[in-house]
């Protein structure tokens, strides 16, 4: 059986980052669930702050440098995406949105997505449903029902008093694992008519050397 490919994208800006910590927890639970079911999993994790300059250059010039192109290729061939962003001014981080903007729009079609977000207060938790989920739905991805928000007080605490952060992480990871296990994007990966490079790369005049 071909291993399922999960890509993890963290848009945290600090080091260490609670955004990366949440992303790692979501990935760990999803991998554990899939492996318990006998499904092999490969995980690639990308810190968007390491790609910030490349993302900006791509937006301006239409060219993806090698490190960014690796991330874009990983997303386009993934069986599942875990996307986690801090919430700034009631919505996703600008760096997070800029990364989504340089992805080939077709690359996310039918892709299971587990959404995570972090913020200082639980009041920002609704951003998952009014800002982030519509973004992925518009791109024809399949965001799982449970989005996981972690406020500062959730770490090591009882969360929102209804369900602890570990419980919410596990629930989201389980829903995500269900979709990843069933998805088959091999036809997309092996499509003989697929572009060798992202469309933006071709428009930038760098179709080949």
Automatic annotation (TrEMBL):
<dbReference type="InterPro" id="IPR005025">
    <property type="entry name" value="FMN_Rdtase-like_dom"/>
</dbReference>
<dbReference type="GO" id="GO:0016491">
    <property type="term" value="F:oxidoreductase activity"/>
</dbReference>
<dbReference type="Pfam" id="PF03358">
    <property type="entry name" value="FMN_red"/>
</dbReference>
<protein>
    <submittedName>
        <fullName>FMN reductase</fullName>
    </submittedName>
</protein>
<feature type="domain" description="NADPH-dependent FMN reductase-like">
    <location>
        <begin position="5"/>
        <end position="155"/>
    </location>
</feature>
<keyword id="KW-0285">Flavoprotein</keyword>
<dbReference type="InterPro" id="IPR023932">
    <property type="entry name" value="CE1759_FMN_reduct"/>
</dbReference>
<keyword id="KW-0560">Oxidoreductase</keyword>
<dbReference type="InterPro" id="IPR051814">
    <property type="entry name" value="NAD(P)H-dep_FMN_reductase"/>
</dbReference>
<keyword id="KW-0288">FMN</keyword>
<dbReference type="InterPro" id="IPR029039">
    <property type="entry name" value="Flavoprotein-like_sf"/>
</dbReference>
């Amino acid at each position: 059986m071909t291993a399922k490919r999960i890509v993890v994208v963290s848009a945290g800006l600090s080091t260490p980052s609670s955004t990366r910590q949440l992303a790692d927890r979501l990935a760990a639970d999803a991998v554990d669930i899939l492996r318990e079911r006998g499904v092999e999993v490969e995980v690639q994790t990308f810190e968007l702050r390491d790609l910030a300059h490349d993302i900006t250059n791509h937006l301006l010039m239409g060219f993806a440098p090698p490190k960014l192109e690796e991330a874009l290729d990983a997303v386009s061939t993934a069986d599942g995406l875990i996307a986690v962003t801090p919430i700034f001014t009631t919505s996703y981080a600008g760096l997070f949105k800029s990364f989504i903007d340089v992805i080939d729009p077709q690359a996310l079609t039918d892709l299971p997505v587990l959404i995570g977000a972090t913020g200082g207060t639980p009041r920002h938790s609704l951003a998952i449903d009014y800002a982030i989920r519509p973004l992925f739905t518009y791109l024809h991805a399949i965001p799982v029902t449970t989005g996981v928000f972690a406020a500062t007080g959730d770490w090591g605490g009882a969360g929102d008093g209804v369900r602890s952060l570990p419980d919410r992480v596990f629930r989201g990871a389980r829903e995500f694992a269900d979709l990843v296990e069933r998805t088959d994007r091999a036809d997309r990966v092996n499509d003989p008519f697929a572009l060798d490079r992202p469309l933006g790369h071709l428009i930038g005049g760098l179709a080949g050397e």
